[in-house]
């Protein structure tokens, strides 16, 4: 069933992945060790305190049985099914955390751009008194926003803002922001397209 065994040990304990061979499991039994799995799915044999050198530190059989070890630093499961249940629970927690980060990023973006917080669809606004940075009068604009969680846990936000000017020209600005799941600095990619007027006349209500 398993293609390859990996195992080893020292005077502090034994380990094997994915499961112990009969030989190393027999050694564990002879030393009165405790058979457990850690948070990475590695089988371990925890030795009794009596045979662990006093000058060395290791989680012992007694530590786990009495639950007196650091549960935040180490995870041990005496039943493989409990280990699988824990993994399933942690995967669900991770999924919820990623969804929470995605929604928070989406909310912050919408608040910043003044978009409708209850919709991801494009929202059109018109303000004939607004002046663009280039000095052109903006006669209309539309904005759209979408947020996607990738398989690796990163979040990708995509924004498209289109503006129409009084002289008939328009501008499209697309922004893609990738937020890594490891908390590192987000990556931002921007692309702006300036489109000429579709006809020789100015905006239709000024022609």
UniProtKB/TrEMBL annotation:
Q: Where is this region: Disordered?
A: 180-207
Q: Which InterPro entries does UniProt cross-reference here?
A: Mpm1
Name the residue ranges with Polar residues bias.
197-207
Q: What is this protein called?
A: Mitochondrial peculiar membrane protein 1
Native source organism of the sequence: Ascoidea rubescens DSM 1968
